[in-house]
């Protein structure tokens, strides 16, 4: 009976995994994950995470206004923006540049931009933290790294880029 149970469980596992095998064989699994599955999961988990971390994020981002440039402007670069779950915590009038290696977050990012009209969105860059050449040196006041572990291969290279783009 134990052998029959194992055979039954293995058969169930094969049936569950079969669509993945077929999509992978056809070369469709990775694009599906990157464009549909991963952004959807991050979006849904983000809602739960935001509720649990709201108090901590309020404390973490409460002093962002202190980093305003002498002109009073606050330019913020967010690396690994994902769906933009931090937008609600940024101060009014903040100019935000968003980066992520996955361009498929655009839908949830646009939704969060509409909900957070207190910010000025400058642009969205498809870029890794290690290569922010599209951001001029000394052009931002604050850098926030959100989904950094999902969008960065080298922490030291990313830190060099962060130091380069930060206002002296």
Automatic annotation (TrEMBL):
Which keywords accompany this UniProt record?
Answer: Membrane, Transmembrane, Transmembrane helix
A Pfam family cross-referenced in the UniProt record is Methyltransf_11
Transmembrane regions listed in the UniProt entry: 7-29
InterPro entries documented for this protein: Methyltransf_11, SAM-dependent_MTases_sf, Thiol_S-MT
| One MF annotation (Gene Ontology) recorded for this entry | S-adenosylmethionine-dependent methyltransferase activity
| Domain spans labelled Methyltransferase type | 77-168
Q: What's this protein's name?
A: MET7A protein
